[in-house]
Design a protein that fits this description.
- The chain has 587 residues and is α+β, with helices and mostly antiparallel strands.
- Helix content is 46%, strand content 31%.
- The protein has a 14-stranded mixed beta sheet. It has a two-stranded antiparallel ribbon with strand order 6-7.
- A hairpin with a 2-residue loop joins β10 and β11.
- The protein starts with 6 loop residues before the first helix and ends in a 10-residue tail after the last helix.
- Mean pLDDT is 76; it is low at 133-146, 207-211, 312-320 and 579-587.
Length: 587
């Protein structure tokens, strides 16, 4: 038997296997740890750190301890910190280069935890982030009418009345020059008087017998024809002149009314009128809602690699990057096709100040078209501290990559809000000191079309407002009204696309504030309106008076045309029915 077995070889093989296994167990955990940290840091844009990784062969699985994901916007804060992640792998499928996890456990998930060291990294040029049509920093801007300076408004606002007067002045001057030239080309009084002289000459010619009468008739007919042609020119010019003057007078009337239109427009822009008070919710809470929306969309974008493989295009051909290496994998038809990476069920426990919220995430894979089902999630918490109940569920679908569709629903009851900052403005520091809130949120994203609706009902409300001294009567009235609010309903809607969306808010706070500060607003509005009308009228009065005076030049043109037309008409009547000299045509 000893002849068939070479013990030296067996011993050498065993030693090599033990060495390889020893090196494997010493190195593999570090390799996995570094790979997770590197990949996570690249996806998040800030440090992702892992306490340790423990890879086991019997059973085949992996355990990760203390995973920290830095918030890119706050490097000294972890966006997520996870105490433990553990899962077992399917060995036979792993030999087929498929990582299939039937069940995973994620424990001790905490949000916004402090860090001991900054998690910032050297950033590459940032990609364009989703923005709202309304800049979030500009949503909180509650005007104070008592502080409005009318002259300051007029110095930075373009007045339509000034533009209209200047345009009309230029056109009026051009019309005057044009009509002076046209008058010079029309038959004037001297030419019309020449017809009179020719008619008077016919009187004496008519006394020279029959030949004189016939010759006079012929000359009178020529005079009639010439005079008719000249009168037609004058009539045509007069009609055209009257049309032009009618249009200019309409524009003149508009210029006279324009200062009032300017005052009305500026009132709507700068005053807290009834229409201005209709958007107090947007001014008070819009910035906070906008920040929440922007943050949610940023993290949504960072999760995309978990939902769908990143594709690149080369010469108009889409190329899907494989998970491993740079080779090309040929996928043969499978009886039960499986993606390269799949975590069927993940049990998650999230620790919040109110307690633990537990849930499941199913079908985590970047190859949903192969699996044929979308990712789903559901989280539930009940009878927590400061929170009666919460439920979050939704679907992230990439089954059809050309038609991605995601939805999420959040239902929260009895959430105790404490010290929530609504505005960090130096002029208006507002905070929701406490409230009891019920919230319902439905959000959908189909392709690039975003639609989200939030309805929140708040009770036992206490709002603290820090209004600076000297802010004015209106500011103090609003602050006082807010301090008396005990409850309100808030509705928010986000529409548009991921890259360009708009936040709309409405609340019965608008009605409450409108009723409370209505009298102060009316008084301040009346004062502002009077001052605006007076200042605009003073600014436009000079050019407007000059414009009215300029119409005198056109009036003289009209008078001259009428005079020539009347003179020519009288002469024509004389030719047809008897001239002032007593000449009559013999027919």
């Amino acid at each position: 038997m000893s002849k068939w077995i070479r013990w030296q070889g067996v011993i050498a093989f065993v030693v090599v296997v033990l060495l390889v296994a020893g090196v494997w167990f010493l190195v593999v955990d570090r390799v996995i740890k570094r790979a997770i940290e590197k990949t996570g840091t690249m996806l998040v844009g800030a440090k992702v750190e892992l306490g340790e990784a423990d890879f086991s062969l019997f059973p085949l699985g992996l355990t990760l301890s203390r995973l920290q994901v830095t918030n890119p916007d706050q490097p000294m804060t972890n966006a997520v910190e996870i105490a433990r992640i553990a899962f077992s792998m399917d060995g036979p499928n792993l030999l087929r280069r498929k990582l299939i996890v039937e069940e995973a456990t994620v424990e001790g998930v905490r949000l916004t935890t402090p860090r001991t060291a900054s998690g910032a990294i050297v950033r590459r040029p940032a990609e364009a982030e989703p923005v709202s049509k309304k800049a979030m920093g500009d949503l909180f801007s509650l005007p104070s009418l008592s502080a409005i300076n009318v002259q300051e408004i007029l110095s930075k606002e373009e007045l339509g009345s000034q533009t209209l007067v200047e345009s009309l002045r230029t056109d009026l001057q051009a019309e005057q020059e044009q009509w002076q030239k046209r008058l010079a080309a029309l038959p004037d009084k001297a030419k019309l008087d020449s017809y009179r002289k020719r008619l008077e000459g016919l009187k004496s010619a008519g006394k020279g017998g029959l030949g004189g009468v016939v010759g006079g008739a012929s000359e009178a007919l020529a005079i009639q024809q010439d005079l008719s042609r000249d009168l037609d020119q004058i009539k045509s010019a007069k009609n055209s002149f009257e049309d032009h003057v009618t249009g200019l007078r309409k524009r003149m009337d508009e210029a006279v009314r324009a200062p009032q239109e300017d005052a009305r427009r500026l009132m709507e822009k700068y005053s807290l009128s009834g229409s201005g008070l209709a958007n107090v919710t947007g001014m008070l809470i819009g910035g906070t809602i906008g920040d929440w929306t922007a943050t949610s969309l940023r993290w949504y974008a960072k999760l995309q690699p978990l939902l769908q493989r990143k594709a690149e295009r080369k010469r108009d051909v889409e190329i899907v990057k494989p998970v491993r290496g740079k080779g090309v994998d040929v996928r043969f038809k499978e009886r039960a096709p499986l993606p390269d990476l799949l975590i069927r069920t993940t049990h998650v426990s999230v620790e919040v100040p109110a307690g633990a919220i537990k849930g499941q995430v199913k079908n985590i894979t970047p190859d949903q078209p192969i699996l044929g089902v979308p990712l789903t999630f559901e989280f539930v918490g009940d009878k927590l501290k400061g929170l009666q109940s919460v439920k979050l569920d939704g679907t992230l679908s990439r089954v059809d990559p050309a038609r991605p569709s995601d939805r999420a629903n959040l239902r929260m009851r009895g959430y105790r809000v404490e010290d929530l900052s609504l505005s960090k403005s130096e002029q208006w520091a507002l905070a929701l000191k406490q409230a009891l809130a019920d919230m319902d949120l439905q959000a959908t994203l189909r392709g690039e079309a975003l639609n989200a609706k939030l309805v929140a009902t708040l009770q036992s409300v206490q709002i603290a407002s820090g209004v600076k001294a000297g802010a004015g009567v209106l500011a103090n009235a609003v602050a006082s009204a807010l301090s008396d609010v005990k409850g309100f309903t808030l509705k928010a809607e986000v529409t548009g696309t991921v890259e360009n969306y708009e936040v709309k808010l409405a609340s019965d706070l608008d009605r409450v504030l409108k009723d409370v500060v209505g009298k102060q607003v009316q008084a301040q509005t009346a004062r502002l309106e009077t001052e605006l009308q007076s200042a605009i009228a003073e600014k436009v009065a000079g050019p407007l008076n000059e414009l009215k005076a300029s119409f005198g030049g056109l009036d003289s043109v009209g008078t001259e045309l009428a005079s020539r037309l009347n003179l020519g008409t009288d002469l024509l009547k004389g030719v047809k029915g008897g001239s002032p000299g007593g000449f009559k045509l013999p027919f």
